[in-house]
Amino acid sequence: MPTLTIPGLIDVHVHLRQPGGEHKEDYASGTAAALAGGVTCVLDMPNTTPPTTTAERLEAKQGLARTNARCDVGVFVGASIDNADEIAAAAPHACALKIYVNSTFGPLRVDNWELLDRHVANWPATKMIVAHAEGDVLDRVLEIAQRHAKPIHIAHVATRQEIEMIVAAKERGQRVTCEVTPHHLVLTRDDLPRLGPFGDVRPRLAGPDDRAALWQHLDYVDCIATDHAPHSIDEKHSDNVPPGLPGLETTLPLMLTAVDEGRLTLERLIALTRTNPERIFNLPPQPDTTVEVEIGPRYRLSNHGLQTKCGWTPFAELEVAGRVVKTVLRGRTVFDGERVLAEPGSGRVLFAAE
Ligand code: NCD
Ligand code: ZN
Fold first, then answer.
1. Does residue 243 have its Cβ closer than 6 Å to ligand 1?
2. Which domains occur in the chain, in start order?
3. Which of 17, 202, 236, 308 is the pocket-test mutation for ligand 1 (most atoms within 8 Å of CB)?
4. 201 ligand 1 Cβ < 6 A
5. Is the CB of 25 inside a 6 Å radius of any atom of ligand 1?
6. Does the reported pTM lie above 0.85?
7. Backbone phi and psi for residue 114, each to the nearest 5 degrees, phi listed first
């Protein structure tokens, strides 16, 4: 079967759970999942325990990544209710600032407009601000970013209303970029009876018309990002279900299936998963970094044989037509189609102090 070679993917939205959530994932397991999925660089979110809300915590987290990560990792800092006047000092060493305007898993939340305004005003325009802003909240966030002339990236756009707001802002000339997740491109709330707690995620799975709107406006989408948010099977079966779905190992199979079915071009897939993320977040190049993929033969995704510690995928049993055959990072084979060969500590930590 002929294979194709594409650049290693950059996933700008993952939760690798270290420190504090190592029973769900850690840098070693999460970056193994990344390499098995053809992802060679990840940007890791700040809603850990404790959250990454100070320069000291950022440095400590980068130390953990340095000894454990198998692919390259950039680390986010998070906006909190009490760091608006200090966190900008950490910008040189962070990949970006994450602002949670809507509530989700973890305590990080900027819950009033004055505080959000202060965070956006203080953060330097040389690094990105990433906002979790759903529905009507998005309009207000776009207005604040525009007023401060700051570029802003909108995480996991999930509905027709949201993508249409972003299309309008782009057409007005605003410096706004956005990402969509594979789960919002593939699943809808119609899948919830089947998935139960394994379909519980923020933003929630939306309706078929929302999903159609994401595909329809794909030219206005800048990145495909997983929002890889692993939780254990026990936690998902508990009375207090945490929202979040793993995604690092299933993105290429799903998106290559869209290529196979003519809904996405390979060229556009490369822009969404490599060149746009690299440009938007000003990431260093990764020379000789490629993924060999196979498109065509159909098989079913499975909960078995995954590298992620959580051991499940919401896409189990889905038929796909794409597979990662090999991942090469800086000239070295780091995944051979079955095994991850890169050892913990072989990845680079981006923007870290020497
Ligand atoms: C994320 C998590 O579990 O950390 N959950 C989710 O449903 N997406 C948090 C987040 O990214 O909002
Ligand atoms: Zn997330």
1. yes
2. 4-335 (3.20.20.140)
3. 202
4. yes
5. no
6. yes
7. -65, -40
Q: Is 107 in the pocket of ligand 1 (CB under 6 A)?
A: no
Q: How far is the CA of 335 from the centre of ligand 1 (A)?
A: 27
**C-alpha 43 to ligand 1 mean position (Å):** 14
Question: Both tokens of residue 212?
Answer: 């159609």
Amino acid identity of residue 5, one-letter, is T
Give the integer Cα–Cα distance in Å for 27 and 345.
9
Cis previous bond, 230, omega within 30: no
Q: What are the φ/ψ torsions at residue 197 (nearest 5 degrees)?
A: -65, -20
Residue 244 CA, ligand 1 centroid: distance in Å: 5
113: Cβ below 6 Å to ligand 1? no
Distance 160 CA to ligand 1 centre (A): 21
For 53, 88, 92, 204, the CA distances from 84, given in Å and listed in that order, are: 10, 8, 16, 28
- pLDDT band at 111; cut points 50, 70, 90: confident
Question: SS in 3 state form for 106-174?
Answer: CCCCCCCHHHHHHHHHHCCCCCEEEEECCCHHHHHHHHHHHHCCCCEEECCCCCHHHHHHHHHHHHCCC
Give the tens place of pLDDT for each residue, 178-215.
Answer: 999 999 999 999 999 999 999 999 999 999 999 999 99
Burial 78-91 (b: 16+ CB within 10 A, else e): bbbeebbeebbebb
**Which ligand is nearest the CA of 203, by number?**
1
- Specify the pairing of strand 96-100 against strand 152-154: unpaired
List, for residues 316-332, the tens digit of each pLDDT value: 999 999 999 999 999 99
Report the candidate in 54, 57, 46 with the shortest Cα–Cα distance to residue 21: 46
Q: Which two tokens stand for residue 314?
A: 């919401």
Residue 202 beta carbon below 6 angstroms from any ligand 1 atom: yes
